[in-house]
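On clarity, I found the account of how folds are encoded harder to follow than it need be. Since the whole study asks how a given chain folds, the encoding of that fold should be made plain. For the editor and my fellow referees, an illustration may be useful. An entry of this sort, consisting of the sequence and the corresponding backbone structure tokens, reads as follows:

:::
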Amino acid sequence: MGAALRNIFDQYRHPENRLTHAFFSALDHDRTLLNDFLRVFVKSGHGQKAHGLSLSVQTIPGRPEAPEEDESDRRGIPDAWIHNGDDWCIVFESKINAPLSPDQIRRHIRIAAQLGFTRRTAVAITAHSAPVKVSDGVISTTWSQLYRWLRKHSDNFWARQAAGYFEALEARMIGEENFTSGTLTSFAGFPFAKAADYSYLEGRRVIKLATEALRRDKRLEEQLGVDPSIPGRSAITGTDEDFVWDYLSLRTSKASASHTNHPHLTLGVGQIIDVMITIPNAINTPFRRALIGLGKEGFRNLVHEFLSNMEAEVLSVEHFAAPTMRAIQRRYPSQRAVPFVDSLLEFDLRTAFDGGDPVKLQPEWLESAFAAFTHKNSNLQIQLGAKFEIKKCPSMLEESALDLIAKTWLAGKSLIDHELAGA
């Protein structure tokens, strides 16, 4: 190899350089992985044999790597190289937060030409949700695409190490509020089957990926009126808790001062994935009147329809999911503090209907929840949805978890329709 790459754990200061080094270290250590990278992303190795190629980062081939304290002085050179030491090379420009400049790519190609490389390819890597058009002849990809490719090679040690570093760096950048847009990874499931698997930063990373993907789900937009342009929580808090949560808003809340005036779709992430349609305490008057106007029997029928949809679309796939209703009153000492729970009624929806196993008929709990909502004189919030305990629901460990989350919300379409009708 030309200039030896540092150890994969010996990192640079800037995130782009850290991630570039980790990724190319993995390719350098496993030439089978390198060969597949060339095949998938460059489409061709131009007849090159991976074991004979040299890889380097933050330097010019044939020159020694500058000390890390000079890292800021390397902006004029490619972030990484793959070359055969003769006439063929690939130059890379990688970005996370900074914008991609076509001029940088052109400079890199000129440097390669000056070094005598007659066969030159340029590759741009960004944190955008999709590859961006740079200029003709320049290959564009994203960190999240590279991450998904690494995960497909999860049986490979170096691919696992690199993918793990993508996750760790993304979580750290989110925690430091140092991520302006885009992602480094993609949603691949909720990896929190054991308490030791969960951390606040990893929870924030995963819920960000999940909610961004769910906002792009056209079913939620077209059938439930989700507005993907409305952001969720401005700050994902929960350092002192074992879960984090966020929400998706409906288009009816677009002009509202607060999402708490309208129903919204809430996702809680921890060892249990909590998927709820939330009816907040300060719900708008038309929606509140519409639900109260249903009466006890009409509300029961609405909940029964939700449960029937759940059984057909969700419980048929994930048998241990728990269809749930919750009536809860909380007090918040401060905006970011862990709330006090003054009152909580939570029950499996199947208790409201005579369906036999696995639960016992207890219709009074549903009646109590409706009565509390109808006659409330407190800061009461009602939620309808499902809970997925990860260690019992293996689908939550997979990307397909998002489909079950969406279907849980879609099961409550009749409830949401009362909001959309009053808009």
The chain is about 35% helix and 20% strand. The chain has two domains: 15-169, 198-421. Residues 285-315 form the longest helix (31 residues). Residues 54 and 85 are 7 Å apart (CA to CA).
